[in-house]
Amino acid sequence: MKPVQSSLKKWMRENENFQENYTKIREEVLKDPEIKEFLSYHPQLTQREIEKNLIKLYEYKTQSKQCSACSSFENCQNMLQGYSPILQVDNGEIRLSYEKCHSRLLQEKEQQQQKLIQSLYMPREILQARIEDIDHSDSQRNQAVLELLNFLDQADDTLPRKGLYFHGPFGVGKTYFLGAVANKLREYNYSTMMIYMPEFVREIKSSFKDDSTNEKIDFFKKADVLMLDDIGAEMQSAWFRDEILGSILQYRMMERLPVFFTSNYSLEQLEGQLAATRSGVETVKAGRIIERIKQVSVPVKIEGDNRRDD
Ligand code: ADP
Ligand code: MG
After folding, report:
1. Which is higher by pLDDT, 71 or 235?
2. Domain extent for 231
3. Which of 142, 307, 308, 310 to mutate to test the pocket of ligand 1 (most atoms within 8 A of CB)?
4. What residues does the AAA+ ATPase domain cover (predicted)?
């Protein structure tokens, strides 16, 4: 008999604890200001329904509502990270559901926007450039800043068909401007593709033109805004100039999609660069590329001090 008796005692003891706990939780729940408010809005709820859903009400009580108790999305305290509980009454029954909280929605939007800038071989500091950080003390760059703000101003409404061709000496901040523009465009939900040209040319020339190359080129054609950094500094190749660059620019020209460039060369100088290939001087073909560049961008000269410390 002994074991039975002791387990009976154990059960009674635990049951007592359970009863105690239950009463405590019940009191806590019914005293909670938010639960009280909820119940006051729904006087039709029967005592039986309330008792039956005590656990749901308890769950609601313990969760953070609309991030009130969470410092950030990462520190969300709720059972379902990024979801806020909602109590409703449906056909005389209490329902507990969850909806995405505003921190989660914000985080999802940021993640989405993160994807809007794609880049190939661009330094990290450029991808972090911000319009707000451009210093206005350097009057030699004022024209460029003005043009760039003008572009963004229009883009807020509709994307202009021409981007900008920044040309000037090494280190004046041409590439930095690209990064700053791309980050602003992201806020307006435009996609930007930035490419450091010398590396890109090297990559294309060293690989066979396979599906992945075609995919990339397709992406360069179709991104809302394309940015070609340091054009003219690459190894010259007639094939790249005509088949790759030519076809990308042709497409964007037809579709009226803007392109940004940076270059150490003015357009006249670039024409000379593009003409000089191993097969001789090809002025007509180089001229054709320059014509397309003019269709998709407006040249802006930048002068100023070299900002590089190395
Ligand atoms: P470029 O492309 O004309 O050769 P960069 O854009 O690479 O020049 O700029 C040279 C250096 O100066 C980089 O380290 C860049 O981050 C920095 N820089 C350029 N413009 C700014 C700016 N407005 N504010 C802060 N740093 C800048
Ligand atoms: Mg540069």
Report:
1. 71
2. 115-309
3. 307
4. 160-288
